[in-house]
Write a structure and sequence with these properties.
With 362 residues, the chain is mainly alpha-helical. The strands form 3 sheets. A 3-stranded antiparallel sheet has the order 2-3-4, with no helix packed on it. Strands 1-5 form a two-stranded antiparallel ribbon. A two-stranded antiparallel ribbon has the order 6-7. The N terminus is likely disordered.
Length: 362
């Protein structure tokens, strides 16, 4: 695995990769489409990116066979927003991962191409390069795996990869883009998901007030500080699952939603009854923007989420040992404590992330 070094941050702009704090370098001009109908594409000459992770973040592992290039990211960006990947060419990846909702779905359950409704809310795509497993049940073991599954999901895009590949091969523009990204116009599903994964690894959120405070650039107000102190103490008891700079432990927990879970969660993958009702800890970055909440979107607001942890915990056979408050059905926060927690959670909002032009459609 290729380890990327921590130092400066990156923002990807059209045609240019900008390193934060004023350092930049320009890409060469886009290679023009050949004037005739033959695939006489220019020589394969990708622009590799020296990927920099945000200050204070851990190292990110990037697969050796899918190094980041400007051309690969550009192709992934186009594919992410192109409904050509769905069965009837009406639904793109962005249809369930909206930038305004921090690349999550703002509906309780995500919809498929013909109006069919799933049983879970699409998870947000935020800093996925640091996630060893993805989806609520952890069935994807890499960002590439995560990009592969929705195309053939019988509720989501309802397509077949051979059909999608044929569509892509029929496009001279896509043949050129795949050649520029991977050195071949022989398009495959493996190359398509590699490109999408490259693009998604640029979904970096690191510029919230929480980040500026941890770097000593700003200070919390009194309410935010009290909420921070609660969050990272046994009183709030949030940090066990949502600690660290990523604000997720990347693990799976039964957090006391149901005594008898209808959705068995991780058990669907491991086939172990001890994993019943366990779901992946979502990052709390941009949590203000990703309503509704939980795997099934049952809570409409952050206030409802705080009330649940305060008074609504439900006992079950697989309740996580970290949920010590289950003895009292919750933490029983005071009205001010709830207000302070809410104030702190709002400091996790990163408007630069959701408005980053490099993550929007071309």
């Amino acid at each position: 695995m290729q380890l990327v070094k921590s130092a400066l941050h990156i923002i990807l702009l059209t045609g240019t990769v900008w390193l934060l704090f004023g350092t930049s370098f320009s890409c060469r001009d886009p290679k023009p489409m050949p004037p005739d109908d033959k695939d006489s594409f220019p020589a394969f000459d990708p622009t590799y990116i020296d990927f920099k992770v945000p200050e204070g973040f851990p190292l990110m592992e990037i697969p050796e066979d899918n190094a980041l290039t400007e051309e690969g990211i550009a192709l992934g960006r186009k594919l992410f927003y192109d409904p050509i990947l769905s069965g009837d060419s009406t639904l793109s990846c962005a249809g369930c991962h909206k930038s305004r909702a921090a690349f999550s779905d703002d509906r309780r359950f995500s919809f498929g191409i013909d109006g069919s409704i799933g049983t879970r809310q699409a998870m947000q795509i935020i800093n996925p390069g640091w996630m060893p497993k993805l989806f609520w049940d952890g069935r994807a073991k890499s960002v590439e795996d995560q990009a592969l599954a929705p195309v053939e999901n019988p509720v989501e895009m309802k397509a077949h990869w051979p059909m999608v590949v044929d569509r892509l091969k029929a496009s001279k523009e896509y043949r050129l883009l795949f050649h520029q990204a991977f050195g071949t116009a022989d398009i495959t599903k493996e190359l398509a998901v590699k490109a999408i994964a490259q693009f998604e690894r640029t979904f970096l959120s690191y510029r919230s007030k929480f980040d500026r405070e941890r770097l000593g650039k700003v200070f919390y107000d009194v309410e935010e500080q009290d909420g921070y102190d609660m969050f990272f103490s046994e009183r709030g008891d949030c940090f066990h699952c949502h600690g660290g700079v990523l604000l997720t432990d990347n693990a799976f927990h039964n957090n006391g939603l149901d005594t008898i879970p209808e959705d068995t969660g991780l058990e669907e993958v491991t086939h172990s009854e001890f994993d019943r009702g366990k779901f992946k800890t979502p990052t709390l970055r941009n949590i203000e923007l990703t309503a509704p909440y939980m795997h099934d979107g049952r809570f409409r607001t952050l206030e409802e989420v705080i009330d649940f942890y305060s008074e609504g915990l439900q006992p079950s056979k697989t309740i996580d040992p970290l949920m010590k408050a289950i003895r009292n059905r919750g933490k029983h926060f005071t009205p001010y404590e709830k207000k302070a927690l809410l104030a702190f959670l709002k400091t996790l909002t990163d408007t630069a992330f959701v408005n980053n032009p490099a993550l929007q459609p071309l």
